[in-house]
């Protein structure tokens, strides 16, 4: 891998502590960092290099999935870390930064390959990109990359505006947009599951699939993020990005061994085929809801409007369920049901593919009823792929029993999403990053929902904390003769 200077904005922030340093450390243990690696952490606080390294060491102890048996290993890793104070809005600070980077590149004999990782609020993205451009930080001979994380805008218009600004300083090929769901190992396996298994590939269409269900349920509420979440809600926080990415990754039809261009092009085709919603029709296929007080895993949980920092009159959505259609040759007629919510009964991210009933089924007698075949992909909290088939129970002649076949038997500890993504960004592989085209199409698709919520065209429903959402979410499937699988 090519040598690189990793310039981290927001080096004293929460994301850096919880995710980025532990991910870098795990990559270091696995020898997946470039041999010549140089990190410059930036923040508003004055810190010495030594204190910065101590803080990074602590975050590894607190949050890394693996610990070093030998403390010398952490010290060796921390050798690469330097710190510099930077006020995001001050142009001189960027010029100072340029001098520091050039000095480090000189010292370590590194080519000027620079990766700018913006682990800061999205309101700073434009200013930082502009200052990188103006200061000359991005005009060296080597390559440059910009890594940013969602939210990419607040709606279609602001997303376009942000993209215009960023593209004044970086080309599309240089921008790596993180949607951390795309870094989850099981999401990354979706592509090959279909591509490398002709049996699955042959079934991956509307002739065999009755519906697709994608759920991302969380037990947590708004936590300490009331100020952010109350302006955002489930549509912007989860649906427009993570959930639509899961839909793209499920529906995409890929030839064997597709490169990143092909994967992203085919994902874009899925988004283009997504049947658009009109504002006045949103209520027929989208359920908007908010949690009320309830019990989660035996503990009482407050209702959303009683959470600290949330106005009692807030109409924000903490849950959304929607029925979508991908109107293309493969998926026409197959409903995709998608739901996500806070304070639900369990933390579970899963995709369920429900297959159609057998083609030549005689009217079954009661004891011969079978369950549909299901392909179940669990992404979180644990990872598995199972295929549910029907088999006759040999002890009880007439009866059919669903049996589960485990398609993911070698359970090894897998890397975290950030390890995969940072490694890919360091290598310059954009496959599992969101291309601007996908982001724009996702905002364009979600915009009528945002408008309909804003104008109150969709009634706000309520669900008790610790449940699977409001009754209307079940009715959305029931009207088509389906139900959410695995709600217990
Ligand atoms: C983030 C959202 O993008 O994803 C959070 O902002 C949410 O609100 C989180 O909790 C969920 O991620 P995961 O990986 O825990 O499913």
UniProtKB/TrEMBL annotation:
Keyword Oxidoreductase on entry: yes
- InterPro entries in the record: G6P_DH, G6P_DH_C, G6P_DH_NAD-bd, NAD(P)-bd_dom_sf
What range(s) does the Glucose-6-phosphate dehydrogenase NAD-binding domain occupy? Answer: 7-188
An example GO BP is:
glucose metabolic process
Q: In which pathway does it act?
A: Carbohydrate degradation; pentose phosphate pathway; D-ribulose 5-phosphate from D-glucose 6-phosphate (oxidative stage): step 1/3
Q: What Pfam families is this protein classified in?
A: G6PD_C, G6PD_N
Q: Which UniProt keywords apply?
A: Carbohydrate metabolism, Glucose metabolism, NADP, Oxidoreductase
Q: What does this protein do?
A: Catalyzes the oxidation of glucose 6-phosphate to 6-phosphogluconolactone.
Query: What is this protein called in UniProt?
Result: Glucose-6-phosphate 1-dehydrogenase
Q: Tell me the gene name.
A: zwf
């Amino acid at each position: 891998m090519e040598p690189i200077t990793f310039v981290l904005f927001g080096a004293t922030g929460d994301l850096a502590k919880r995710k980025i340093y532990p991910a870098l450390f795990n990559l270091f243990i696995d020898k997946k960092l470039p041999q010549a690696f140089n990190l410059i952490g930036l923040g508003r606080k004055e810190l010495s290099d030594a204190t910065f390294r101590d803080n990074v060491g602590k975050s590894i102890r607190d949050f890394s999935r693996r610990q070093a048996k030998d403390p010398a290993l952490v010290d060796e890793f921390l050798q690469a870390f330097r710190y510099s104070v930077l006020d995001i809005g001050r142009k001189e600070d960027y010029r100072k930064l340029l001098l520091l980077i050039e000095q480090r590149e000189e010292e370590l004999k590194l080519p000027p390959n620079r990766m700018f990782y913006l682990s800061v609020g999205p309101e700073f993205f434009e200013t930082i990109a502009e200052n990188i451009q103006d200061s000359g930080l991005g005009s060296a001979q080597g390559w440059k990359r910009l890594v940013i994380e969602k939210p990419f805008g607040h709606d279609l218009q602001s997303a376009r505006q942000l993209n215009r600004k960023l593209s004044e300083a970086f080309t599309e090929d240089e921008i790596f947009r993180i949607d951390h769901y795309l870094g989850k190992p099981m999401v990354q396996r979706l592509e090959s599951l279909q591509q490398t298994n002709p049996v699955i590939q042959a079934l991956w269409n509307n002739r065999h699939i009755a519906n697709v269900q994608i759920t991302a349920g969380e037990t947590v509420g708004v936590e300490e993020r009331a100020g952010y979440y109350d302006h955002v809600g489930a549509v912007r926080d989860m649906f427009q990005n993570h959930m639509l990415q899961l839909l793209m990754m499920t529906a995409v039809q890929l030839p064997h061994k597709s490169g990143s261009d092909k994967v992203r092009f085919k994902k874009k085709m899925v988004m283009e085929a997504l049947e658009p919603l009109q504002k006045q029709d949103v209520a027929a296929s989208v359920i908007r809801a908010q949690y009320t007080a309830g019990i989660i895993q035996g503990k009482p949980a407050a209702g959303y409007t009683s959470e600290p920092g949330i106005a009692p009159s807030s109409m924000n959505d903490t849950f959304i369920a929607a029925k979508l259609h991908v109107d293309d040759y493969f998926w026409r007629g197959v409903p995709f049901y998608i739901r996500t919510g806070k304070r639900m009964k369990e933390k579970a991210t899963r995709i369920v593919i429900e297959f159609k009933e057998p083609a030549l089924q005689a009217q079954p007698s009661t004891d011969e009823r079978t369950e549909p075949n299901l392909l179940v992909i669990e992404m979180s909290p644990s990872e598995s792929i199972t295929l549910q088939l029907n088999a006759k129970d040999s002890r009880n002649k007439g009866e059919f029993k669903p049996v589960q076949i485990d398609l993911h038997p070698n359970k090894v500890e897998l890397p975290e999403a950030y390890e995969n993504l940072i490694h890919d960004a360091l290598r310059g592989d954009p496959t599992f990053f969101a291309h601007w085209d996908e982001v724009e199409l996702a905002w364009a698709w979600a915009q009528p929902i945002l408008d309909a919520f804003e104008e109150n065209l969709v009634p706000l429903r309520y669900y008790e904390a610790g449940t699977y959402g409001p009754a209307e979410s079940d009715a959305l499937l029931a009207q088509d003769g389906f139900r959410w699988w695995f709600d217990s």
